Amino acid sequence: MKHSQILLPPSLSSPSPHPEKIFSEVTPKCEDCQSLVKPDIVFFGESLPARFFSCMQSDFLKVDLLLIMGTSLQVQPFASLISKAPLSTPRLLINKEKAGQSDPFLGMILGLGGGMDFDSKKAYRDVAWLGDCDQGCLALAELLGWKKELEDLVRREHASIDAQSGAEAPNPSTSASPRKSPPPAKDEARTTEREKPQ
């Protein structure tokens, strides 16, 4: 595996992937220089790409709903992103615990915004759904009428990953975190409030 197969400079086109090496439990090394191959992510302490900051300025002005999941909202610059959305934008936190609450006065002084407000009498746009992120997304999808589609999508993606990794499902005894597909959707008819008989 070469560096360019995982981490590509923006000027290069993507080479064909090597899933057998990516999904194996062997630490991938560059075939040319034998150094470790780094995934295309930013690790803690590394600089974010310039594109992150330009997108942050333009994209957050356009959001009509902000979903925040699986985070302590402690690390900058991500912790302050919640304050970039317009004041009229609802914000939904799907998390194991409430996060992002801060003293509004201190936040304004430091230029970080006021944080999340779930419990005050002034709270009008922040909602916390507490629990596992997968279950929170499933609950949201169910409320939106998308539960079956989400379950089907997850099943298809898991099957695709399994097929790319050698047509064998991961062995739970050797995998650090085996994937679990969501439970199958119930075949019973769905009834919305307005469809229920009176």
UniProtKB/TrEMBL annotation:
The keyword Calcium does not apply. It catalyses: N(6)-tetradecanoyl-L-lysyl-[protein] + NAD(+) + H2O = 2''-O-tetradecanoyl-ADP-D-ribose + nicotinamide + L-lysyl-[protein]; N(6)-hexadecanoyl-L-lysyl-[protein] + NAD(+) + H2O = 2''-O-hexadecanoyl-ADP-D-ribose + nicotinamide + L-lysyl-[protein]. Keywords: Metal-binding, NAD, Transferase, Zinc. PROSITE patterns: SIRTUIN. It holds the Pfam family SIR2. It comes from the Eukaryota. Its main location: cytoplasm. One of its GO terms (cellular component) is nucleus. InterPro entries: DHS-like_NAD/FAD-binding_dom, NAD-dep_sirtuin_deacylases, Sirtuin, Ssirtuin_cat_dom. It is found in: Cytoplasm, Cytoskeleton, Microtubule organizing center, Centrosome, Centriole; Midbody; Myelin membrane. Residues 185-198 have a biased composition (Basic and acidic residues). Residues 1-20, 159-198 are annotated as: Disordered. Residues 1-147 form the Deacetylase sirtuin-type domain. One of its GO terms (molecular function) is metal ion binding. PANTHER family: NAD-DEPENDENT PROTEIN DEACETYLASE SIRTUIN-2, NAD-DEPENDENT PROTEIN DEACYLASE SIRTUIN-5, MITOCHONDRIAL-RELATED. This is NAD-dependent protein deacetylase sirtuin-2.
